[in-house]
Amino acid sequence: MNKIMISIFLCLVIGIAKAQESEIIKSKGYTLNFLNNDASFDPALKKRMVETFFKVYPVLAKDFNKNTAKEVTFSIDTSYKGVAATGGGKIVYNPDWFKKHPGDIDVVTHEVMHVVQNYGRGGGPGWLTEGIADYVRYKYGVDNAGANWSLTPFKPEHNYTNAYRITARFLNYLEKSNAGIVVKLDNAMRTHTYKDAIWQDITGKTIDELWATYAANPGT
Ligand SMILES: [Zn+2]
Fold it and tell me: Rounded to an integer, what distance in angstroms lies between the CA atom of residue 15 and that of residue 32?
């Protein structure tokens, strides 16, 4: 590296360091590291995200996985273009999404469930991972109504493999006659004991039989 290159490099590093704000918040035995590289990010939204984390995460830990990470990182990152993504104990959020959808606070609930899930590779099908996360958003969300978010109304062309809200609606239906099935499925995915026969082991019916029964009478 020549001198000019080194100067440019240092400017970039200092620039990034300046733009990056970080705060460590501790409560109820949990730690949230809040990183933010968007100077225009609304402090009221940050406050709401932090409050949602400390309200929801300890409850999900208790109900689903007592060994979940005690420390989680939220990163508001202008370079990330999806809505949000979770890897390990770190969740990256796109600030533009929240600017356009400021009420969508339960993106936090969905994403922190992914931290709790912690299935690693080979836990089971991806559609079920996302279905469980949206079922949890539906059941534990702090303000789904404020985001105008609800389970997708049933349509005949749906299938349980559609993931997200479509699978979540099916899981919610199954909970009515098989209370605790989501906890069992979640645990099987985390312990890598999930297999196709698990649906029959829990309910006495295969998943296709369960779906056929649901599709015949999906409720409103
Ligand atoms: Zn997800």
Answer: 24
Structural domain boundaries in the chain:
18-118, 122-220
The torsion angle over the Cα atoms of residues 211, 59, 46 and 19, rounded to 10 degrees, is -90
Q: What spacing in Å lies between the alpha carbon of 84 and ligand 1's midpoint?
A: 8
Q: Could you tell me which CATH number the domain at 18-118 has?
A: 1.10.390.10
In tens digits, the chain (220 residues) has pLDDT values of 555 555 555 545 555 545 789 999 999 899 999 999 999 999 999 999 999 999 999 999 999 999 999 999 999 999 999 999 999 899 999 999 999 998 999 999 999 999 999 999 999 999 999 999 999 999 999 999 999 999 999 999 999 999 999 999 999 999 999 999 999 999 999 999 999 999 999 999 999 999 999 999 999 8
12 CA distance to ligand 1 centroid (A)?
Answer: 33
Residue 85 CA to ligand 1 center (angstroms) comes to 7
Q: Is the CB of residue 184 less than 8 Å from the CB of residue 167?
A: no
Closest CA to 106 of 135, 78, 126: 135
CA of 133 relative to ligand 1 center, distance in Å? 6
pTM of the model: 0.91
Q: Give distance in angstroms: CA of 14 to centre of ligand 1.
A: 33
162-175 burial, b if ≥16 CB within 10 A, otherwise e?
bbbbbbbbbbbbbe
